[in-house]
Each structure stands twice: as C-alpha cells, then as structure tokens.
Amino acid sequence: MPEGGAARTSAGGVAAGAVLADAGGFARLYGEPLMRMPNDLYIPPDALEVFLEAFEGPLDLLLYLIRKQNFNILDIPMAQVTLQYLKYVDQIRVRNLELAAEYLLMAAMLIEIKSRMLLPSRKSEAEDEAGDPRAELVRRLLDYEQIKLAAHELNALPQLDRDFVRPQIFIEQSLVPNWPEIDVADLQQAWQAVLKRAVLTQHHKISRQELSVREHMSGILRQLQGARFIEFADLFDRAAGVPVLVVNFVALLELAKETLIELTQAEPFAPIYVRLAYSPA
User: Are 224 and 273 in contact (CB under 8 A)?
Assistant: First the structure.
C-alpha cells in the first residue's frame, strides 16, 4: 500500500484476540466496565480506518511522491509518478468523491503531459519548437514547495496558547483601606509644629478667659461633619492664642479617646489627617 493512503483494519479480528491490560475492562458502557465482548455485537469490516498520511492537495501529494523517490524535480519521470498518483486517487475515490474530484483534475493534467511527451516533436514554420510539457508543472511544484517550507518555518516559531501562555496574576484588594497606625512621636511632632507656628503669630494680651473642653469638642465635630478628612493643623486657629490651642488639643485627644474621631497617616512623615470614626471609608 503506498504511503498517503488509508489502511483499513478489521476491528473484529483485533478485538477477538485482545487481552485485557488490567481489571478495568477494555471498554466502558454507561460508565460501567465491559469485561467481555457481547456475543450479538456486529462490527462491520470497515469500522476501523487508520489514515497513515494526509495531504493538503494534489500538489502536496505529487511533491511527496517525487521527493520520496529522490526524483529530479526538473526531470520528472512522468510514467512512474502518474501510475503512483492514480493508485492513490483510486483509494480516495472510494471514501470521498468530493475530495477525489480535486485530485482527478491533477490526474488528467499528468496524463495529458505524459501523452504529449510520447508524441514525436514537430516543427512549425510559423511557431518555434514547442517547449517541455512539464515546464508549467515544475514551476507550480517549485512555487508550492517554497510556500510549504515558509509555512513550516512560521509554524516552528513560538505561538501563544500553543508553546507558551501569558502569565496572569490576580491580586485581591480589600475594599476597606488599611490606614497605618499613628505613632505617639508623630502626633507629638505635629502638635509641636502647630504650637511653634502659634507662638510666632500670637499677641501678648493679659486677660482672663474661660475655656470649655466640651465646647471645643463640639466645634471639632462640627468641622468634621462637612468634610471627609481635615488635616491636623487645620483644626487649630493659630490667631486664637496658646491657651485656646491647648484646650483645642485636649478636646481632640478626648474625642480620640472616646473613639469619636480617627487619626490617619498615609505613610511615615506624611501629614496627619482627622476624620469622623463613623464616616464611610
């Protein structure tokens, strides 16, 4: 049998002499192992077909026959090649008539070239001597071989989802921001910076003033009602004087102690921000 054809093997003869490889049976029926062949099972002779080679078209088959036998593509022995080609066409006509039609066209061309080569050459007064009848076929075969080799080289290149895949990394992000905790030293430095700026802008006035921590606590909460975040320094009125700033700072600490407000900082040495503890994140 020429390579490129389809070998048919009788499934009945193979199954009759088969030995079970393990206790799992040689087949499964509805999920259950089948331990022995049913007596009333009919298997047609052509139930199993093994295709040894598949060709992409007539030119592919013809090029395969030429290269396999190391024929010179510029001097093709038409008699041998045509005979082998027709044997393959006879095999595929039995299985696929539509596929055979494409190969029959090439078979007719081979027979025509073979017939023209058998005819004696004649010279015409009006025309030059006729060229080699195989010239057009050789040109088509060479062009097809070049395209086939180029396609093979392209297919050898790494391809996505065949030779490699894109790495995908899934990072789970929490919807609630995880703010860093405020260090006592950072809070102390922020308070000293506010106090230092207040000293530079204060006016020396001697007066008796009654200050209420509860009032300043209420004032801070009112400031935070209309804003999501307020910077720590913006909660202090530097022109009010040091006593007011001290009471305001004590009120801020009381609110933090009662967990009515939160002190947040994006990163070390960044500004400190204040917000209501029950405000949305």
Answer: no
